[in-house]
Amino acid sequence: MTMIPVKRPLHDEEKALLDFLLSAEFPGHQELKAQAEHVEVVGRCKCGCGTIDLRVEPHSLRANTEKHIPIEAYGEALDVLLFAQNGILGMLEIVYYAEPPERPYPRPDQLKLWARPPLPPKDVSSI
Ligand SMILES: [Zn+2]
Asked: Would the pTM of this model clear 0.85, i.e. be above it?
């Protein structure tokens, strides 16, 4: 994917989607929520899929996220992935599995949240 540099605040529909993702309970969600209040869009995907790169304010509190993709959501023929690198909000990626002639921006009411379950503790007895 090719990102085009931009510099703008979140659009309302992007903010709604981000808020929706961060309404889920997962490790670090509170810090990510705080970061999302002052986030800037610094890139958007050239293809028009709606994927955006986010930049948080400097000195933001890092989230204790366990995973590179702490939260995602899925809808009909699309996934929304939120990336956090080292506890800092990164890309909001929208993945389409079909090619609709017109791609409406996904709305929260079309999506279901999904967080990867935590890794199970290692069972040493079975080795
Ligand atoms: Zn794209």
From this structure: yes
